[in-house]
Amino acid sequence: MSEENRPAGSGPEAGTPAVDLPAAAPSDAGVLDVRQRILEAAIELFGTRGVAGTTTRAIAETAGVSLSLLLHHYISKETLAADCEDYVVRTILEEKLGGHSMAESAARLLGDPKLESRLRFITRQITDGSRSGARMFDRMVKETRAVIGKDVAGMRWKATSDPDTLAVVLTVYGMAPLLLADHLARHFGTAPYSAETLQHIGPVLLELYVNGIIEPVAGSETQPPWPDTPGQSGGGRHAR
Prior knowledge:
By secondary structure, the chain is an all-alpha fold. The protein is built from 10 helices and no strands. 21% of the residues are buried.
């Protein structure tokens, strides 16, 4: 059986070591370095070619390891893609954004030398049209839902009637700059997925999240009801 047709697994339970790399003893440092190189190479190639368009041989060559060594750590591209997703999400949400002030989070994110490859990877996975894309979108919704209602760096979430739907909406909203990266770059005269592009839109996005963009005029309802859908009454799903 060729390395490209090995049976797909589903992450650590399929025999792949967990992606959350612990602090290593000196004897383990070489193993962790190899896995790190494989992950970074796969993220770069999956982001530009997609999972289906990337061979394990190309990943091994980019990582500077043998094909047999790569297959020792990852039995299939599917298990490797799943670990790449975990690694990218953890890196961005925990290491760059988690528990820091907004200013520090922005500095950490914009200062990441691998920011472009990580954002390209997320975009490619989301639009892949395969189970990888569905898994990535569901993961982003889950991570977003987990922080709704939690105070972060002095900021408090406003009350919402439907936090589950809010998580989906915010995920879609957050994906838009990635899916339209080429148009954003053309408009601002920057490179796609670059820190410069994020610096253009970041302050306005923050303003939008914190302050909103509309407010009721004097004497009007604080929140107009959403129109009913066919077969539904009572002012729509979010009626108060």
